[in-house]
Specification:
alpha/beta, 17% strand
């Protein structure tokens, strides 16, 4: 029997209690999902290999799974899809302020060096494999994001045939970038 489940991956130096993660998890539970927001290993320097091992030991991916990633958590979500066995296809992936390489805005790199992302990405992206491993891709982006340039979202949309959702003043969809209103994320809940 397949369970409807949701996994939410936080961003760099993040935790399960930040931002809109608990809000989305609560809304998902009300819709009958089992939810999982793990504290990721090595969160100060996100590591795809470590995270993949950690997540797949604890969590089952199947056709009822929704994978949600925020910031470097979205980059991890893509890496996980690339690494999952070919037989697994999940229902949907939601990427919020994600990025595909360590070259972010100068503003971000004033306090997070590029080298903190050395182990975040696969050696090369296999977009075809990633696309095969998830049903729909929903990509949230704000033109006011102070950290992530538009090219990241444009590439994801093109390679994944994803649906791009612009939210004008959402910055980095985080409390630190935009204040307490980012404890909630009703636009995302619509896709659960």
């Amino acid at each position: 029997r397949h369970m409807k489940n949701v996994i939410i991956l936080h961003g760099i130096a993040g935790s399960p209690i930040l931002n809109w993660y608990q809000f989305v998890a609560k809304e998902a539970r009300e819709k009958g999902y089992t939810t999982y927001i793990p504290q990721l290993p090595s969160s100060d320097k996100p590591d795809l290999e470590l995270t993949y091992k950690f997540i797949t030991e604890k969590f089952l991916f199947d056709k009822e799974t929704l994978l949600i990633g925020h910031s470097s958590g979205a980059s991890l979500a893509l890496g996980i899809l690339q690494k999952l066995p070919d037989a697994i296809v999940i229902k949907m992936t939601i990427l919020v302020s994600g990025f595909i390489d360590p070259n972010l805005t100068p503003k971000l790199h004033t306090y997070i060096p590029r080298s903190d992302y050395d182990n975040l990405f696969p050696k090369a992206w296999d977009w075809e494999k990633i696309r095969r491993t998830s049903g729909d891709f929903i990509i949230f982006y704000s033109p006011s994001d102070p950290f992530v340039q538009p090219r990241h979202f444009e590439t994801m949309r093109e390679k994944l045939h994803g649906k791009l959702i612009f939210i004008p003043d959402a910055l980095h969809f985080s409390v630190t970038s935009g204040g307490e209103r980012f404890r909630e994320f009703p636009e995302l809940v619509e896709y659960l």
